[in-house]
Amino acid sequence: MALTKNQKIYIVGFLLIAVLVICTLAFVSGDFGGSDDSGGQAAEKWGYIPWTGNWMEDIGFELPSETESLLFAVQAAIGAIIIGFFIGWLYARKQ
User: Fold this and answer.
1) pLDDT confidence of 19, banded at 50, 70, 90?
2) How far is the C-alpha of 4 from the C-alpha of 9, rounded, in Å?
3) What is the DSSP letter of 86?
4) First-residue to last-residue Cα distance in the chain
5) Quick check: 62 and 56 in contact, CB under 8 A?
6) What's the alpha-carbon Rg for the chain, to the nearest Å?
7) Is the pLDDT of residue 15 over 70?
């Protein structure tokens, strides 16, 4: 069975991505922690002083962590829907 040109491109692309991921995980040592606090730590390191505080706490309102997680998940879902729409639109435009 002979491979088509597109199949060869996909196979080579997949292998290239696999090699890059394996090399990154094997040879790069470091902390792959989250970036939630990294920006704040970097800003403090350079002496940045925030010009505003947490205004939600100032008015006496704070979201529970479950609600923050829900809002994050909704934001990710909306982004995925938008990206999926445009991929589908481009695919349909080709046909």
Assistant:
1) very high
2) 9
3) H
4) 27
5) yes
6) 22
7) yes
Phi, psi at 6, each rounded to 5°:
-65, -40
Contact in structure between 37 and 29 (CB atoms under 8 Å)? no
Residue type at position 18: A
**Residue 31 scores a pLDDT above 70:** no
Helices within the chain (DSSP H only): 5-27, 38-45, 55-58, 65-94
- Token duo for residue 47: 């002496």
List the structure tokens of 70. Answer: 């829900």
Q: What is the pLDDT of residues 50-95, one digit of tens each?
A: 777 777 777 777 778 888 889 999 999 999 999 999 999 999 998 8
Q: Is the dihedral of CA 72, 34, 46, 54 positive or negative?
A: positive
